[in-house]
Amino acid sequence: MKPIVVLFAMLLLTPLSEAAAFNHPPIRTGVTLTPDHRPQPDAPAGELQGPFEFHSQIIPNTVRRYWVFVPAQYDSATAASLLVFQDGQRAINPEGPIRIQHVMANLIAKGEMPVTIGLFITPGNLSQHYPDDLGMQNPNHRWQEYDVLGDRYARLLINEMLPELEKRYTLTDNPEQRAIGGTSSGAIAAFTVAWERPDYFRKVYSGIGSYVSIGYRPEATPPQQLGGHDYPALIRRSPIRPMRLFVQDGSNDLDNEWGDWFLANQQMVKALAYANRAADDKNQAGPRYQFTHVWTDGRHNDDHPGALLPEGLRWLWAGDKK
Length: 322
Known about the structure:
Blueprint: H1 3-13, H2 16-21, E1 47-55, E2 63-70, E3 81-86, H3 88-91, H4 100-109, E4 116-121, H5 142-146, H6 152-166, E5 178-183, H7 185-196, E6 203-207, H8 231-237, E7 244-250, E8 255-256, E9 259-260, H9 261-281, E10 290-296, H10 303-307, H11 309-318
Parallel strand pairs: 3-4, 3-5, 5-6, 6-7, 7-10
Antiparallel strand pairs: 1-2, 2-4, 8-9
Helix pairs in contact: 4-11, 8-9
């Protein structure tokens, strides 16, 4: 039997899980909340302030809410690190799967991340005031801010929101100590901010990232010709940004008209690896992408990216200890 025929026969007889293990880590199961998601007696709770309303000039006619987490260890004499998280209404939900204020308090107390101010912000809503009845639902201007490529949302954060925060708190000017994260469209929004402004944000937490074609809207005014599905090609063909990324997605994530989420996240990781390999092959000076990924058996919800948040934040800041 010819070698290529033998190989094909072997693949047919190989269980799918084993074949997948050739190039990918095993899919993680049993992902659930950890003690770091709950208040711990030896970890000062800090203070969650808000909600506050904010009207943007860069994205006009929108209003958004935000919350600020101030760790108990914060001292205005010392610049604090920064973590921005999208879909803030879900991130801070004390009964939800993210519970970011508890995660931060516990990790800071254990020295697994530095003293860090948290900014948890919703997408915009096209109204004079943010609706009180939205609860955990998405405001009506989410995809236009989160899923569209470009620097507009980054400018809102850097030029408008963070100056408001800096009126009250002493924040670092070191981009290595500024992190940004989110889930679903909030994850691609976080990636886009760091992609556009690595001089400001270099750590990214991406859960169930929507690296699909939601933002591709040629019929819109103005037309949106690029979407998240374009990122793998852009990563492969653009100069490497100095970014450190924790990427999570689930094998049971969405597959619909916008794209296949699990495939899209695998394409992102492959593109990051290719960019590094191509730069090494050419002996190019400069940064390399630092990244890791965790594939789970999760669906398109915050359960698994929320449960993995402590692990992700530890990993993002562990690189500073080398």
